[in-house]
Structures are given as structure tokens and as C-alpha cells.
Amino acid sequence: MSPAPVTPRRRGVTRLTGAAEAAAYATERSSTSAPIPSGHPSAPSGHSLTEPVEVLADPSGVPVRVQWHSRWYVVLGEPARWFQRRAWWLETSRAERGRQGLVSHKIWRLELRLEAAPAAQSRTVDVVHDVHSGRWRVVRVHE
Amino acid sequence: MNSFAHLHVASCFSSHYGTNTPAELAARAAADGAAALALTDRDGLYGAAKHISACQEQGLPPILGVDLAVQDRGRVVVLAAGSAAGYSALCEVISRAHDADPAAVPLQVLADSAASDPSGQPALYVLAGPQSDVGQAAAARGYRQTRALLRQWKQALGDALRVEVVSHLAPPGEPLSTAHAVRMLSCANVVGVTPVLTNAVRLLSPAEAATADVLDAVSALSDLNHVTGLQPNDQGWLKPPDQMRQLAEEICRASTSASVSPSRLLQSTAELAESCALDPEQHMTWGVPKIPEASVIGIDRDADEELRHRCQEGLGARLTEPAVRQRLDHELSIIADLGFAGYFLTVSEVARLIRSLGVRCAARGSGVSSLVVHALGISPIDPLAHGLVFERFLSRRRSTLPDIDIDVESAQRHMIYREVVKRFGDQRVVLMSMQNAYRIRGAVRDAGLALGLPEEEIAQLAEIMWRFPAKEFRQALAEKPELKRLAERIETERVSGRAQLDLLVDLTERLDRLPRHISTHPCGVILGDENLLKLTPVQPSGVTGLPMSQFDKDDMDPMGFIKLDILGVRMQSAIAWALDEIERTTGERIDLDAIDYTDPATYRLIQSTHTLGCFQIESPGQRELVGKLVPESMADLIIDISLFRPGPMVANMVEPFLNRRHGYEPVRYPHPDLAGILGETHGIVVFHEQIIRIFDRMTGCGLDAGDELRRKLGTERLPEVEEFFRTHAAEKGYDAATITSVWETLEGFGSFGFCKAHGAAFAVPTFQSAWLKTHYPAAFMCGLFQHDPGMYPLRLLVAEARRLGIPLLPMDVNTSTGDYRLERTETVPGAGQSPWGVRMALSRLKGISEAEVRRITREQPFDSLADLRDRANLRRSTLRDLVRAGALDSLLPGGRSRRKDLIAWVESTNLARSSRPQPKHALGQLPLPLPDMEVTQMPVEHGELSPRELVGSELELTGIDTSGHVMELHREELERQGVTYAKDLLEQRSGALVRVAGIRVATQTPPMRSGRRVVFISLDDGTGVVDLSFFDEAQATIGEALFTTKLMIAEGTIRRTGPRAVTVQATRAWELHRS
């Protein structure tokens, strides 16, 4: 008998006492981790993907030319930009103080036209700029 | 125009919302060249005083406001106009909002307050923004509704209304997108309301956004995956002027109405900032002390004269002593110069009020240094007798307001607050609040909650966290032995792809020190004049419902609020209970102020180190110190209490003092002039008062300047103090060697000493409690049980009572009440046995309700189980637990031997109330006892309870092992392990190897001179308390179990440190039942 009140073991709760158990537990948990709830602003209209792209920007950071699939495009008009939230607690492993770009991505919606074919129909794509790598990616192509 | 004023800014004092301190925000705004800066925390002015101070430091015009809910209309920003009327309207409207829970103000009340400035200017400006009903309608694209709602606002508020335009650059179509801002702008345009631009700031920079996400999850009691309404992104930060201008341009460009230019939007924002800039001195009486008017305390003549008169009355014949007369004149002239006479008269009135209510009260703190305080009867300590320095408390040079603390019985504290409010009027008295900040355990729990960790895992993690700053969690993982296992786990899980624990560490660090919630300060009462409620918003205090200021103790000085600390001290309640019990049982009323403070028996008890339960000297470290110091007088007790403080311990004052006291080391003084000052502590500097006097003696600076110099020791201004000291001491003719030697002492010890006035004030209840324990042990222990004042679990005090031979009378439905009571025992006392026992209280039973306790005590006695069942009307679970705890043994023919049968019976029988209503007292007759059929027929089947079952149920149900000590159950095991008991440790030679065991009763990590952590654990083994120390190596050996093991067995060596002082330096420890 122990005089200390013993917390009853509850179903679904694992008491972790050793590294081996912890590893097993971690594997199990990460395979069953909760899905991103609907309602997060990530439901795409159009076609989502992630594809590296080269972007040239003006001095204030606004994209002006884009090289995509080895072809150069010009950006038409004033591109719209916004900041889109990430489910960072599922996507990253660290969140130390001062970490940049953790909670949202800057997204640009660009209307692109082939430089070489001024008469071609324009296409609209969303591109994201990763603050850590400095790389750009196309994340959505609007049909 | 490259400047911008943020008008909507939440600091971390918007609890579970903002992420940065007002000082951080103001510093950044100033660096960005802001024109002004507002602080608009949610629901109150919690950070307002800090904001004003920070703005003054940065040279920014401050603006104050609040982010407040308007009933049924969402949240708006309310800004005070830059006027006295504006600030007081802001305070009043916030107080009105807190009439509702959650806080919300009716629109009409807001409108009335906004129009309350007699000059006709708005007193408040209201910013209807994205969180208002207007903004919500705009987000939902209800264009017509948006306009209709805004028109209603305009009708209510007129000129005071602005539309707040905000874009957090959220994805198109979402709230806080630029499109949302555009809709607000065009609606403002159509309805004819001036728009202003803000950034609805809650972050200093985007990097804090993750912290805000965690706070949002925690405030919704949810995890990040499931919480709704997270901020759309990380853009709610304090953007610099050029970015705000870009936002203005972007919004105006996107606006099809195109009738507002970015410049005009920014201009109207700047104009509003200008109208709202506050002059703290003019508009808030910043820094000007405010006390109740003389007329309220019934004084019709000059307060200085009245104070002199009352002091002279109080001192009486002592005034013929020149020293007394001189000191009084000295103090009164300083008080008159500072204009504080009214304050002293107010405190004196409060003390008089408390005593007139029959409540024990004692002054504490540096106020005890004042003869005026003594003469007014606030403090029993004569400052002249103890050499206390008035200037430590108050002087012409002191920039802070005086602070007199009064200790009262904890159980009477709320009653006293109510009486003080009644006496001075509810417009002049409010309680002070306190911000509770995140510490490691709370931070781990909430970060774990946000990440969705299982509750039990969080609890296990929190349990092993032991007092380190949350922001150093990752560092602690690398260093602390008890976290080694956790560090390994994190590593393993990282490898297998689970990042949750890594994130947990980071998020815990982010939460460190953020304000968590506000509560009533345990003792602060603010006393002001009739305008107090125009200077502080109030909200109902959680416990008493009395109005509580939104300002905390750091805000008192700058706001010019005078607070009185009325601290509820459980020891005072325990003493009061003991005295009442003695009077109730014997008719004797003891006057503790008249006892003999040289009583040898009391000092023998103190010297024995059996001081559990005694005020200030019961902790493991104090018991050791008392054993070394061997106090023989009140002066010794004052020194003892003063030495056992972080400062003196860290500065290593204790060892040299003890060595000199016991003659192991000669007493030396740096200079004969200092012998008079340092004589009481054998040449060691212990007290602040000694430092003040050394400065004065050697430089001739005066006591007031001496205290100023003392306060600068240990700060960055140390060099200027040294310069002053060396120059002036040399001028006074002290030689260089003396000056250097004294300076080294001052420099080394100066910032670590202790105020002797505090020690003197503490020593009185310390002696009183020891005196009661010596002469009335049963009554004293009874008082301790009732009010549980100490640092230990109650069951240790019960064990101490058992050690003292005080009969512990079990809980009994016929004799127990809701309280612990002294009871004369019938048995003839044996050797060392007290004739007085303590009857355990029914209220200690877990789960019993107050109403059930009341019904039992009202209906007592009961002659049978049926009688109890019918008249006390107990819940089944309560009845069962009473049976299990033995409270019904006296109703059973076989007593405790039949308890097991009764438990079985209670658990199996239908306990429906007997169908016949009880004709209680009907027709003036007592009811006939029903034959207790069930119990008499109860089969004998279950045998007797084993001691283990007996004690087990007691601990489970009451937390106290009343019938026997829990360690008795392990006696055989302990014998087998060769354990040495606490009572025998003193006979062991120093250095002997021993094994000890017991149930953990205390864990401490006091500050150490070396800066290394030493863990002190105290075990109760039934014969007394064993104190163990664990140094680095032992901590590493034990790991997690250091803070989690309840029943511990340990090995180590005996350290004898004084005639009665012995501890065990542990090398190894483990859980008892594992061995």
C-alpha cells in the first residue's frame, strides 16, 4: 500500500517510463495525429501543387518576372499578396523564440503572360516565398 | 510625414492575448519614430501605469484606452481624450463594463461617458473596427446591414465615433483582409464617420505570432488543432510608419469609392492621436499621493497637530525621557514636511478598527522602525529598544511612499476588508490586484494543452519540473539530473519523428513570465480620497466581491496610490483559535502581550529544535540554524530570523556569526568606532540598520543619506557610493586601511543584509507560538490543525502532536464538529500523556459538504445508524466515507472491530430514507429512538480491519493518519533494512553512515552561496523529522525520483552542525517499496 493517492490509469493514456516505450508511442501517435481541421484557409480552388520557380522582384520585393518550366513570363498588373496561416505545430519541429516565418507564408497571386508570346492567354498562379531558403514555389495554378 | 501613432495595441496585460510588455512596445515605437503610442489592453488598464512609465522613459506622448466589449455589439476600442475628464471617463466606463461577466458595457452607458466632459469635447473616442458588429457585418459582406449598424453607432456617439480600418493582409475574402478594410472604409465614407487606420496590434513582431496562437488555444481550453478563431496570420504586429503608410495606400487603392486618400486616412489618425495624448501629471494626478480626507477620520484640526497630540497620549510618561522626546520630534518633523500625517492617522484608524473587532493584529515591515507607529499603538515594538532606524522607513530623501504592513488573523481578513470599506466609504477603498505570471509548471501544462498532449502525460511532466525559469527549459534539460530521462526521451522521439516534445520545450519557453490571470493581492488595500474611482478602474474581486483595482503593487507609487498591507496570517488565526479553545474549556483568558518574554522553558523548547508549527522557525533550515545558534533571548531570535534569509545566507554571514557567538573565533571590529554598531552581532554586518549607521558614522552623511547609499549597494551605482564613502571617510580622518576594510564589508554584505525591523516584528509571534507550544501544547496543536499555517502537510503536525503525547481523538459523528476542538480525555493520563486531546473535524472528510457538516452538528447526538440516516440526511457517499473513516465506530456495538461489516452493509443496503417522517420535536416530545434493526442484524462476516486498511482509508479520506503513523506499517521492512530513526540521529557521531526512511514532508532548494543547487528533503518517520541534503552527485544518482518519491529510503552520512543540529548528507535514495 502506498499512502499517496494513485492516479487511476485512464484508457488511452500511456505511461512512458523508458526510451523504447517512448519511441513506440511516438510512432503510434504520429501515425494517428489529428487531421488539419476543415475551415483552415487552405482549401484550394483550382489545382494545388508545389513546384520550384524562379522569381525576379523589383526593389520593393514585388515580383515582375518569373521563370517557370524553363520559360520566362512577365507579371501583369498589380499582383495581390496576402499572408496565409500554416498549421506550424504539425509542420515544424521547432518553434523557439524569435523564429521567423513560422505562422504564415507570404503568398502572391500573379497573372503571368509568356514573355515570348504577348498574344498568349495569361495564367494565374499563386507563388510562395520561403523566408528561410529564399526560394519561391508555385503552390496553385488557377484553371 | 514619416511617423505614425498606433491607436490599438494590446500588451501582455491583455491576458492570453498580447505577447509583449508595454516597455518593449514603447521602446520599439520610439525607435520607429512614432508620434505617440496607445495602450488599449483588453477589458482594462492592467498595463496602463507601465505604459505611462515606458512612454515617459522613451519620450513618447502616451495614449490610454481599452479594447472593450459593448453589449451585443462586439468589441471596440475606447480611447480616453487627452484630458482629466477623458481619463476618468475611461476608468468609469471600464468599471461599469465589469458589472457584467464577461465584461461588457451597454452602448448607452458608453455614449453617456463619452459625452461626460462639461467642456463639450468628447471625453472618450470610440473606434468601431473589425471586431465590432459593424466590422463583422462588413466581413460577411452585409453591406446594407453594415451601414445600418454604423448609423446606430453614429447616432449614439456623434463626434466621438471613428471607424477603425485594419488590414492584416489576410487571404482574400477573409476577415482582416484588405478587402475587409476597404468595406469598412467605404462604409465610413457613406455614413460620414471619420476613418482611422490601426493595425490591431497584439504582437511586437511576427516572431511572436506562435506565442499568440498558443495563448488563443489556452484561453479556449483547446488544442491548436481544434481551436477556432485563431489569428489569420502573423501580421498583427507593431509595424513601422513606412509599412503603415504602404497599408494605407494599398487599402485606398483597392477602394472603388476612391474618395479617401491615404494621406487623409493617416492625417485623421494622427489628429485623433493628438486629441488623446495624455499629460499624466495633469490628467491622472500621476505621482501625487492621495489619502482619505481628514474629515473622514473625524479630524477637524490640523493633521500634524492631531498626530502629535495622539503620539504624546500614546507615549505618556515615556515623554520625559529625552531620547524619546527627541526621536518623536525628529519623526514628526519629517512626517510634517512630507505631508504624510494624514496617512499615519489613517493607518492608526485602521488598526484601531481591527482591534475593536476583537481580531489579533501586529505591525510588520519597515514601519515598525517608527516611534510614531509605536506610539499610535499600531506596533508593539519599541524602535528605541531595538535600535531601529526611522530613516529606513521614511526620510525627506525617500522617493517612495511609506508602507505600513499589518498582520491579522487570516480567517478574519475578508471581514476586516469589508469593515474598512464601510468605515472609509466605498468610493475611497479598493483592493489591490496582482498579476500572476507563467512559471515553469503552468507553462508546461498550458503548452502541453495547446499541443494536445494527453492530460496524464502533461501531469507527469509538470511533476518533475522543479523551480527553474521556464525560458531556460532547454538549458535545464541539459543540466538538471531530474530531467535527464526526459531529455533522452525527447531525443528518441525526435529520431522517430515525433516533434511534440521539442515543440513543448520551445512553447514553454515562450510562455515564461507572461501574465496569466489577475487576482486579488493577498493583502494590499488602496486607501484614497473621494476621487479614487476616477483614477482606477475596478472589477469585482473573485473572493469577496469587493471592488478590486486593475493596478498592481508596482503601479502604486507612480499612480500616487497609498496602499496598506493587511495580510492574513494563518499563524495569527491559529494562535487566536488556541486561545479561544483554552478559554472555552477552562475559562482562562491568556493575554499574549503580557507573557514573560524571557521564559526559560520556552527557550528550552526552541533550543530543542522541536519547533514544528512555530512561526518562522519550523522549516528544516531554521530548525538546523536554531540548533546551532541556541537562542536565549528575543535579541537572539531577531538575529536568528534575520540570518535565515536569502541575503545573509548567500553572503555567508551565518558561519562567521556562529563561530564568534560560540567563541570559536575572536570578535574583531574594523575600527573601535564601529563596536557600538556591530556589537550585537559580534562584528558581523547583518542588519540594514547597521549599514546605514556605518555610513553615517564614518562619513557624517546623516541617516537618511545613509539609507540612500545602502539602497545603491549592489546596483550599477556602486562606484559612486564607493567614491563618496572613501572621500568622506578620509575627510573624517579614518586611515586608508580601515576605509578599505570597511568598504569591502559594505560592498560584500551591504546589499544582502536584512531589515532588523522586519526581524523584530517577526520575533514576537515566533516567541508567542513557541510559548503556547511549551505551555499549552494541545491547544496550540488544535489551533494549528484548525488553520494549518505552516509549510508542512497537516499530517506532519498530527504526527508531531502524537510525539508530544497529545491524544488524537478520532472523527466521530457524535462528538466531532466542523472544527478541531480541544477535549478533556477520560482516561487517566499516563506518563507524558496530556489530559487534553484534540478531536478531529468532520470537515476534513473529503467530499463532505458544508451543509452536511452543519446538519450533523445541529442534530447531534445520534443514538443509532437509523437515527443518523434520518436526521442528518447524508448522501450515500458521505455516509459510506464516514463509516470508512471510523466516524460511526461509536454507534456500533463492537466499535472498530465491526467496521468492516458496517462498510459492507452500507455498500449493499438500500439506504432510502425511512418512510415514516420523523416527528422531530413534534408536540414538544423527543422522538423515540427507532430500533436499529439493520445494524443489530448485521452479520459478522468480515473480520477486523488490518492496520494497513485502517491507516489507508484514513489517508485516502482525510489525508491524515490519525489512528497510527503511516510508517508503522513499514516498521518490519525498516528494521530489516537497518534504518536509524529520527529520534536516534542525535546520538550518532558525525560522519557515521546511516540509512533513514520516511514519508516526504518538505522539499526545498534554498539559495546557496556557491550558486549550486542543494536539494533539502525532509522525511517524517514517525519519531520525528529527518533532514536530508542532496548535493550534485547525489542528485544525479537519484534523477527523476528526487522530486517524485513519496516514501523514501536514503543512505548518507551524519553531519553534526551544532549541539542539537544534525542532518544527513545523502548519497543514495530510492522509493521504499522498490527496495
UniProtKB/TrEMBL annotation, chain B:
GO terms for molecular function: 3'-5' exonuclease activity; DNA-directed DNA polymerase activity; nucleic acid binding. Gene3D superfamilies: 1.10.150.870, Bacterial DNA polymerase III alpha subunit, thumb domain, Metal-dependent hydrolases. CDD domains: DnaE_OBF (cd04485). The keyword Disulfide bond does not apply. Residues 5-72 form the Polymerase/histidinol phosphatase N-terminal domain. One of its GO terms (cellular component) is cytoplasm. One of its GO terms (biological process) is DNA replication. Its EC number is 2.7.7.7. It catalyses: DNA(n) + a 2'-deoxyribonucleoside 5'-triphosphate = DNA(n+1) + diphosphate. NCBIfam families: polc. Belongs to the DNA polymerase type-C family. DnaE subfamily. Belongs to the DNA polymerase type-C family. DnaE2 subfamily. This is DNA polymerase III subunit alpha. It comes from Nesterenkonia alkaliphila. The lineage of its organism: Bacteria, Bacillati, Actinomycetota, Actinomycetes, Micrococcales.
